[in-house]
Amino acid sequence: MVINRGKAKYSKMLNMAYSVFFACMVYIVFSIYARDTRNVSIPITVRANSQYINNSNIPKFVNVVMKGSQDLIYGIDADRISARLDLSSVYMEGIYVIPVEIVYDLGILNSAKVEIYSTQPNIRISMVKRPDSVSI
Length: 136
Known about the structure:
The termini are far apart. The chain is built from three helices and seven strands, in the order αβββαββαββ. The protein is an alpha+beta fold.
């Protein structure tokens, strides 16, 4: 009889371990797939170059996607997100593909697992040498 009690206790513990494991798996699956998406349009700030100028049309806005918990992503103030285009690294005339840098406050976003990215990660531009000043 003592042997059966040990097997019964072991069997109950094993069943409880399986239950906890499957509950954790269900939680993980639902937390991954229960994410919402929010799209916002953010103005692009261009950091100019002193020797070269842009010869193409740079979009004024870029679409930014936020993915995460609905409560969190709709609580984010879109004015606290900015998009930058840095042209200061251009050193000669030509066509360049410049990455769009999305800047935001990392405080709550890192801990909350909110994903923020641009739908247009790169912008193609044409740069030409800045004309000399005109003398009169």
